[in-house]
Amino acid sequence: MSITAIKQKRVSDEVFEQMKEHIISGEWAPGKKIPSELELVELFGVSRVSVREAIHRLVGMGVLTIRRGEGTYVNEVLPEHYINTLLPILMIESASLSETLEFRAIMEVESARLATRNADEQDIARMEKAIKVMEKNKGNNREFAAADLNFHVAIAMATHNSVIIKVNAIIHDMLKKIMEEIVDITGYEGGLYYHRRILEAIKNRDENAAVKTMREHISATMDKTTGLNGQKS
């Protein structure tokens, strides 16, 4: 049996896991309001960004709801909701790298189109931040890959389409692993090049450019990983 190095968890992942445990244990009961972002920052001793990322993942999974002006509440989660969340994970856990990229080619191209129509200033800021973190972490595959994924998550959120956001939340962990594999293969400059162009197109509300560039981005990645078709993610 081969042994692989144990990778450190990102802070937002640890916050997500702890928040999830609070909900599963019933400490944060269905229908109840959870602590505010600032309170969670103090409780966990982490940055507001890490708390916000964890909350958005739980919102995307349908576990939490943010009510403007009121706070964040735990949803009433029925058994069938767990099944609806788990089934996609069980179905895709054995997907190959090429299959995952084919899925991204379908979903992310149209996500780029919707993001161009619907992105607000906060969405643009998320994309810009992800690119800056990528630039800062050239040479650090794990952090670069995490920021790369955050850019694509930011695009999904910028669609303001609840289904797209939830699908991204469900497959987030699988995509995180895939993204690290992709960075190992493709390096740093290609992702940065395409991300900058996609961001520029979204800022300019140029749907055709955003769609074309995202399609080129996924296609270029697929071309570079052709030799790995059939490998498991």
What structural category characterises the helix and strand content? Answer: mainly alpha
* Multimerization status: single chain
| Alpha carbon gap, first and last residue | 18 Å
Strand residue content: under 5%
Q: How many helix segments?
A: 11
Count of domain modules: 2
How many beta-strand elements?
Answer: 2
The CATH homology group name of the largest domain: GntR ligand-binding domain-like
Supply Rg: 18 Å
CATH class of the largest domain: Mainly Alpha
From the spread of the alpha carbons, the general shape counts as globular
Percentage of helical residues?
A: 55-70%
Spans with pLDDT under 50 lasting ≥5 residues? Answer: 1-6, 228-233
Could you spell the SSE succession in H and E letters?
Answer: HHHEEHHHHHHHH
Which fold name is given in CATH as the topology of the largest domain?
Answer: Four Helix Bundle (Hemerythrin (Met), subunit A)
Mean pLDDT: 83
